[in-house]
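sanity check this record:

:::
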Amino acid sequence: MEKIARHFIILIVLFSCTSAIAQKSVRLTQNWEFLKQDLGGIWEAVRPVGLGNPESVPLWENVDLPHCVNATDAVDPDVNYYQGPAWYRTKLKIENPYQNGRTILHFEGAGQKTEVYVYTTKVATHVGGYDEWTVDITDAVAAFQKEEVYQKQFKGQVPVSIRTDNSRDLEMIPSNLSDFNVYGGIYRYLNLIYVPPLSVDKMFAKAEVDAQGKFGKLNVSGRFYNPTGLKNATIHLKLIDPKGKVVAQQEKKLSNLNGDTELWSLQINKPQLWSTDKPLQYRLQYDLVSSTGSYKSEDKIGFRNINFVEKGPFNLNGNRLLLRGTHRHEDHAGFAAAMSEEMIRTEMQMMKDMGVNFIRLGHYQQSRIVLNLCDSLGILVWEEIPWCRGGLGGETYKQQARNMLTNMIEQHYNHPSIIIWGLGNENDWPGDFAEFDKEKIRTFMKELNVRSHKLDSSRYTAIRRCDFCADIVDVYSPSIWAGWYRGAYTDYKKVSEDEFSKVKRFLHVEWGGDSHAMRHSENPDKALSKIKTGESADERAGDASLFGGAARISKDGDWSESYITNLIDWHLKEQENMPWLSGSAYWPFKDFSTPVRPDNPVPYMNQKGVVERDFIKKEAYYVFQSYWTEKPMVHIYGHSWPVRWGDAGEEKMVKVYANCTEAEIFLNGKSFGIKKRNSQDFPAAGLRWNLPFLKGENTVKVIAKTGKVIVTDEIRFNYQTEKWTKPTKMTLTKINEEADVATLEVKLFDEAGIQCLDAINWMNFGLTGDGKLIDDLGTSSGSRKVQAYNGRAIIKVKLNKGKNVASVKSDGIPTVFITL
């Protein structure tokens, strides 16, 4: 019998937790097989197969979970990424320790439509790639265990098969017009959970405190999972403060186990507050006891007061806090959406180390791991549903949006880090339907706004870039891309003031621009001379294209790290003098893949991140650090710029990004003076020097001080004075080999053999032999098709301890080879 998957969460406690926890949960990461196509039916996944028989095809591959169908093809420069059905299968040893207990499969996220089978029985379907959901397989397992094949074919194990499908579907959100891949696969953790017959479905803990932090209030309600219809139970609740002290306890007899039940209401004088600097959390422990056993778990909560002041800034716990933010897509080189917990932890810590105190999760509900880290690190959150671009579909479309909003709010209700529920993004962007009716979009936006406030009255609602809906939500972010899609970055403050005046509460999310990692420029702002300034900096239709339209940096600029650091530098110094500003969020933290940008320097990549898709930091990371962090740091611009150029004797600017009070620069061992940091002295907050480089090798060192603390940085590079013409030839050399991996570098030269340091030719790497190109990573050094950066490009080769011949071809230039 088919059952629709229940949208509830079992609060998971892993084996690493204390043994006092009653329920058991295991991540199902290993022993999976995967098929990147559809089957003729579920029987093909479970039928007995003899080696070499026709039934052995199609062939399955062994994978671990999490796993994304589009781990590599999302950035393959030669194909459209796969959108269609895929299958996963495994065999489980079911050993539920509870008498009449329930066996649950808990999906933390799978894209985008999912079907779950136990042997040949479909037990659940789910639509939506980002919310959590569960499947009770207890009855299906019991029925299968009575069949002869349970022991004969499967040797006492239970076959579980899962079909995912990310096929294009106009009646689903997000739209395929969105600037990110709609991935397929079981790309978040899948857990096997055993619970007693009565357990907690959801626990809602509403923690409130006044702005002065004097009076705290906690209201707890619960929803139970009670498939066998138990009538009575007792719940024991305990609140423990951040230092481990028991603050209060409660015992409540329950005679109604259906629906949401009020469990506890208490007041706390002067609770310890959660903040971005001190993210203190309380623990709410609970023990649900019935005649069938005990279910124990806990949630973490935080007391904080939030206030987006009308026509003003943002206050946390009664004090102004400038939201210093960025964005996150769930995407990583070689894994796409299937990021491990370790990867997620690394990414979130990198953000915190950059000085981030706010994040917008674009553009969908994200992993519980992300939210837990935001809670513990002190990062405030805007989380949103993926109603993104395309217009508004029919009732099926709208019901999915309602479900995803409900699931997101209920599943992440207790996180103190969350301050905003996002209802949509760029809903002024048509294209999926013949009709684009603004009034119908407004009507549905109003419905979602009401639903959000009904589900959670303690948080704000927001959207980005849909001016005709700006008055509906609590907080609005217009589209301001000063210096990229429109205007110059010096327009930023004026445009922001104009937009601020139009809405009740203003928050600027999404700003910045693309940069091709390792590409640098001696004159990065040259293209600004072509740009019309002093008008709206809103992104408009077609602005993201590299073809046609008005002059704009996104099309006419050099996409260098040099330009983007200037743009970011200007924005950050301006934000320090905008007392009415609630905050902003740079778009995004990390480069991510997108199907709508095939012509970018790394094909199919949005390259606006301050780190590459593999966590390699770009220069921009350190600009943010210099404004947003307190731990003393210093960074000389140009660590990935091996050759600078100019005239002999010409003075060239060296920029230093630091949060220290002063810095002294040295060129080839000689001091060129000390400068004081002044955030309003653009660029580099006054820490810039014009230095006379020597032809050939140069060394630049900086010593920065704050009080008695000293930090240093150093770079080495060559200075080229020879002029070049157009590229006519290439060289391909091995510049490193380590652990059976060779690093290759191609360089472009003119007819006279002078390196062409501004060349941006397309490079196409190839390999024949025993090894494999390490490509399809979506990075500047991990793509077989890539634009050159300063007349060069890099690729790595896994040699497999064999013989290989690598090649590079570029239109109009003779192809070159190297034997490895």
The chain is about 15% helix and 35% strand.
